Amino acid sequence: MKFKQTYTAKGFKENDSNNSVLQNGTYLTNKALPTLGYSKEYELDNTRIRTEFELTPAKEMAKRNDKTKLTYAGTGGNADLLNFEVTIGTDKSQKAISCGTLLKDWTLGNRSCFHYKTDKPKVNQYAIISADYEVSKSKWFPKNDRLATPVDLEIYYQKGHQYNVHRMTQAVKLSFDYFSTNFGSYQHRNMLIIETPNYIEQAESFSGAIPFSESNEFMLNIDHQSLSILFSIELPMN
After folding, report:
1. Which of 93, 121, 131, 190 fits as disulfide partner to 25, beta carbons 3.0 to 4.6 Å?
2. In 3D, which of 173, 116, 171 has the Cα closest to residue 148?
3. pTM of the predicted model over 0.90
4. Beta strands 111-117 and 21-22: pairing type?
5. Which helix (H) or strand (E) segment is 170 a member of?
């Protein structure tokens, strides 16, 4: 199946303006594209509205041992896991990011193209992000988990927002150490953390990719001097 979809911004609203496509950045999820099959995620859940349309009451929360709901609770879909592969074309000055491993990137005219593919089937949740990013790359090596393999760590951030990139890298590595030791091996070959505009005001977790609002760490300039001043103010005098 082939389809063409366009988006045109028509000014600004007082509240809830659509900020998915901006001058220096695009942040789309699978909700922006057509969905095959039936998705419970879009069902009406307001009791009054369901009554108005003569619909039966919304189903209650699933049982804790419902295997189907445990697998697809994040999407509400009734389909199997999907093999995700995407090629993204964006502005030549920008980097496009999505779930999976970057297999190839190239330039075509005034467009930059990026080809991603997941190494394992995943639920129907993904993001497509593009902006003029700086990138910090490192690698995590397993210490205690013999079954684990090294993981490529990449943090994409706006130039000038590099204050805590090193701390974030350390935090991710420490988290991998703990989780791989106490829970199990990480299932992907990479982990991407991507700065998103403050309009998003949240972090989301996709397969191997975590879009992270700039207000949630990237714009906090915490240095050792300011920390020592803060602590000296908070500590009681003897």
Report:
1. 131
2. 173
3. no
4. unpaired
5. helix 165-182
